[in-house]
C-alpha cells in the first residue's frame, strides 16, 4: 500500500512516516530506486516503534538514537564512557582490581 493509506491505518500523517523513515525506524526498501510500499512488516515495525515511544515516553529521534547506540559499537562505547563519567553507569571492574581487593582482604588482621 502507498504511504497515504499506511498513514491512515496507523493514525499518523504521511509526513510523520517519512520522518520515521529518515530516522531509520523502518525496514529498508526492498527494491532500491522504487517508492516505498507499506506491507505488514512495515506497518508492524511502525506500530512497535510507536508503542515503545508511548511506553517509555520518548520521541522517535530518541528511539532512533537508542537503536544506533545498540548497533554501532563506537557509539555504544562513547555513550557508555559518558555514563561512567557522570555516574549513571558503574565503571567495569578490572580483573586486577578484583585480585588486589582480594589480596587486601586476606592481609587484614582478624
Automatic annotation (TrEMBL):
Record's keyword annotation contains Ribosomal protein: no
A Pfam cross-reference name: MerR
Entry-linked PANTHER family: MERR FAMILY REGULATORY PROTEIN, REDOX-CYCLING DRUG-SENSING TRANSCRIPTIONAL ACTIVATOR SOXR
SUPFAM superfamilies reported in the protein's UniProt record: Putative DNA-binding domain
Protein name: HTH merR-type domain-containing protein
Coiled coil segments of this chain: none
InterPro entries per record: DNA-bd_dom_put_sf (IPR009061), MerR-type_HTH_dom (IPR000551), MerR_fam (IPR047057)
GO molecular function per UniProt: DNA binding; DNA-binding transcription factor activity
Domain HTH merR-type: 1-69
Record's keyword terms, sorted: DNA-binding
Organism: Planotetraspora kaengkrachanensis
